[in-house]
Design a protein that fits this description.
Blueprint (H helix, E strand, L loop, with lengths): L1 H27 L4 H7 L6 H8 L1 H21 L11 H9 L3 H24 L24 H6 L6 E3 L6 H13 L8 H18 L3 E7 L7 E7 L3 H13 L2 E5 L6 E3 L13 E2 L9 E2 L4 E2 L5 E2 L9 H4 L5 E17 L3 E16 L1
Parallel strand pairs: 1-3, 4-6
Antiparallel strand pairs: 2-3, 4-5, 7-8, 9-11, 10-11
Helix pairs in contact: 1-2, 4-6, 4-10, 6-8, 6-9, 6-10, 8-9, 9-10
The structure holds 2-acetamido-2-deoxy-beta-D-glucopyranose (NAG) (2 copies).
Length: 356
């Protein structure tokens, strides 16, 4: 009996770090891709290839993670969980499978796609360059045709592809290689959800490319135009994913064990752009080590708003304190010939509410 217990204990000790390393490896992505590389030294596959052979790409990936994190913090600035990168919070969030987890994964995958694609356009990577589409105008092939692009294509006059377009194919692929590869062979619900949300994040860029054109011709007559494909601004990507977050669908494993279905038959099945999750979120009102909630005590709130930033919701009904603070701002700015602007500093009184 005792022997068996010891064996079980040894097995647990052996299994946990291995099974856990996948999640921990993936979870570190939000904070530090370099750490993934340290941990994947023993692993094979595409992630390890990038770590070993493509250091400059890895740098761009790290930048992309930053871009995603910053946008997450902007989009969640007024929410109870504000996308803080404090490890004790974010690590826990990423170990779960809530709507917040889904958003963080999606915006990170999008950030990586964005940064790598941008690096190609700027010529910062030897592995890739701009997108040089050569087909004549009005002949977009099916693969590259998206609604946004159609909307922004010139409707009249002669034009052709040219210039330096954003090579989103490369960014998309590298984001997938790095972020999805370690999970490809797994089919548990958390993995399926993660891969789906990563992809939704990348699609929020790839399928929302627009077209920008430049006129050529005598004195701007625009007799010829060259056009190229351009990524959306990352703020637009964030806004779009935030919308998906607000309408995220809860899913459960389906019977075949390799896919998911929505919980409850009345919900519209999620498409490729929707965010999904499999666990309900905590309310994030009080600090909780288990869930990664830091609570909302001390957070600033808006006493006149009925929304998530309003004191009632943000403070979870606990009430709030009001202080008047003096804040320095620039004022009475004057334009001086030439070319300088001088301002005074003024003190203004401002009411600040903080959650109890
Ligand atoms: C985010 O929330 C935490 C705790 O709830 C707080 O300490 C931190 O200052 C907040 N960050 C921002 C940028 O508001
Ligand atoms: C507070 O909320 C109101 C109503 O939503 C809004 O008009 C106002 O600009 C907000 N104030 C701040 C400081 O965000």
């Amino acid at each position: 009996m005792e022997m068996r217990l010891v064996l079980v204990a040894i097995c647990l000790l052996l299994v946990t770090p291995i099974a856990g390393s996948f999640w921990t490896v993936g979870n570190q992505v939000v904070m530090d891709p370099m750490l993934i590389c340290k941990k994947t030294r023993r692993l094979k596959g595409k992630t390890a290839d990038i770590c070993r052979k493509e250091p400059s790409l890895l740098k761009e990936i790290a930048k992309g993670v930053q871009v995603g994190t910053k946008e997450c913090q902007y989009q969640f600035r007024n929410r109870r969980w504000n996308c803080t990168t404090m490890r004790r919070s974010l690590r826990k969030i990423l170990l779960r499978d809530t709507r917040e987890t889904g958003f963080v994964n999606a915006i990170t995958a999008a950030g990586v796609t964005y940064a790598v694609t941008r690096a190609c356009t700027m010529g910062h990577l030897v592995e890739c360059s701009c997108d040089k589409m050569t087909s004549k105008g009005n002949r977009l092939d099916k693969l590259t045709r998206t609604v946004e692009m159609e909307k922004s294509l010139p409707t009249e006059g002669d034009w052709e592809w040219g210039g330096c377009g954003d090579n989103v194919k490369f960014g998309f692929k590298k984001s997938r290689d790095f972020m999805d590869a370690p999970y490809r062979k797994r089919s548990d619900i958390k993995t399926l959800v993660k891969l789906h949300n990563n992809n939704a994040g990348r699609l929020a860029i790839r399928d929302y490319m627009s077209t920008e054109c430049k006129c050529h011709g005598l004195s701007g007559s625009c007799t010829v135009r060259t056009c190229w494909r351009k990524m959306p601004a990352f703020r637009d990507v964030g806004n779009r994913l935030k919308e998906s977050f607000d309408g995220a669908a809860k899913v459960i494993p389906s019977n075949d064990g390799h896919s998911f279905i929505t919980e409850g038959p009345t919900i519209k099945p999620p498409d490729r752009f929707d965010l999904i999750y499999s666990e309900d979120s905590p309310d994030f009102c009080k600090p909780n080590r288990k869930t990664g909630s830091l609570g909302t005590q001390g957070r600033r709130c808006n006493s006149t708003s009925q929304g998530v930033d309003g004191c009632e919701l943000l403070c979870c009904g606990r009430g709030y304190d009001t202080r008047v603070v003096k804040e320095k701002i620039s004022c009475e700015c004057r334009f001086r010939w030439c070319c300088e602007v001088t301002c005074n500093t003024c003190l203004v009184k401002k009411t600040v509410n903080t959650c109890r």
